[in-house]
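Q: I have 76 residues here and want to know how they pack in 3D. Can you give me a structure?
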Amino acid sequence: MGMAAQTNTNTNKENSKSVGKFLKETKGELKKVHWPNKKELTKYTGVVLTTCLLMTILVWAVDSGIGFLLKLILNR
Protein backbone atom coordinates (compact mmCIF):
# COMPACT_ATOMS: atom_id res chain seq x y z
CA MET A 1 0.00 0.00 0.00
CA GLY A 2 2.30 2.76 1.11
CA MET A 3 3.97 4.31 4.08
CA ALA A 4 1.97 4.45 7.24
CA ALA A 5 1.10 7.92 8.44
CA GLN A 6 3.62 9.20 10.93
CA THR A 7 2.45 10.82 14.12
CA ASN A 8 4.11 13.77 15.78
CA THR A 9 6.00 12.45 18.81
CA ASN A 10 6.87 15.87 20.22
CA THR A 11 4.77 16.81 23.20
CA ASN A 12 3.90 20.34 24.25
CA LYS A 13 6.46 20.02 27.04
CA GLU A 14 9.25 19.17 24.58
CA ASN A 15 8.20 22.03 22.28
CA SER A 16 8.26 24.54 25.14
CA LYS A 17 11.75 23.36 26.13
CA SER A 18 13.03 23.80 22.58
CA VAL A 19 11.44 27.27 22.36
CA GLY A 20 13.02 28.21 25.68
CA LYS A 21 16.41 26.94 24.50
CA PHE A 22 16.05 28.89 21.25
CA LEU A 23 15.23 32.13 23.10
CA LYS A 24 18.12 31.64 25.53
CA GLU A 25 20.57 31.06 22.65
CA THR A 26 19.17 34.05 20.76
CA LYS A 27 19.70 36.28 23.78
CA GLY A 28 23.29 35.03 24.04
CA GLU A 29 23.95 35.80 20.37
CA LEU A 30 22.48 39.29 20.68
CA LYS A 31 24.95 40.02 23.48
CA LYS A 32 27.79 39.38 20.99
CA VAL A 33 26.50 41.98 18.51
CA HIS A 34 28.40 45.26 18.22
CA TRP A 35 25.66 47.86 18.56
CA PRO A 36 26.62 51.23 17.04
CA ASN A 37 26.75 54.33 19.21
CA LYS A 38 24.90 57.51 18.25
CA LYS A 39 27.79 58.93 16.21
CA GLU A 40 28.24 55.70 14.23
CA LEU A 41 24.50 55.34 13.71
CA THR A 42 24.27 58.89 12.33
CA LYS A 43 27.20 58.22 9.99
CA TYR A 44 25.77 54.90 8.76
CA THR A 45 22.35 56.46 8.23
CA GLY A 46 23.92 59.21 6.13
CA VAL A 47 25.75 56.64 4.02
CA VAL A 48 22.53 54.67 3.42
CA LEU A 49 20.50 57.77 2.52
CA THR A 50 23.24 59.07 0.20
CA THR A 51 23.52 55.68 -1.51
CA CYS A 52 19.73 55.52 -1.96
CA LEU A 53 19.68 59.02 -3.45
CA LEU A 54 22.54 58.24 -5.86
CA MET A 55 20.95 54.97 -6.96
CA THR A 56 17.61 56.73 -7.48
CA ILE A 57 19.28 59.32 -9.71
CA LEU A 58 21.14 56.58 -11.61
CA VAL A 59 17.96 54.55 -12.25
CA TRP A 60 16.08 57.72 -13.29
CA ALA A 61 18.87 58.68 -15.70
CA VAL A 62 19.04 55.22 -17.28
CA ASP A 63 15.23 55.05 -17.53
CA SER A 64 15.05 58.50 -19.12
CA GLY A 65 17.83 57.61 -21.57
CA ILE A 66 16.14 54.38 -22.63
CA GLY A 67 12.81 56.20 -22.98
CA PHE A 68 14.42 58.87 -25.14
CA LEU A 69 16.06 56.25 -27.37
CA LEU A 70 12.79 54.35 -27.74
CA LYS A 71 10.99 57.53 -28.78
CA LEU A 72 13.67 58.18 -31.42
CA ILE A 73 13.42 54.63 -32.75
CA LEU A 74 9.60 54.47 -32.74
CA ASN A 75 9.10 57.91 -34.35
CA ARG A 76 11.07 57.01 -37.48
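Q: Anything worth noting?
A: DSSP finds two helices and no strands in the chain. Residues 20 and 26 are 10 Å apart (CA to CA).
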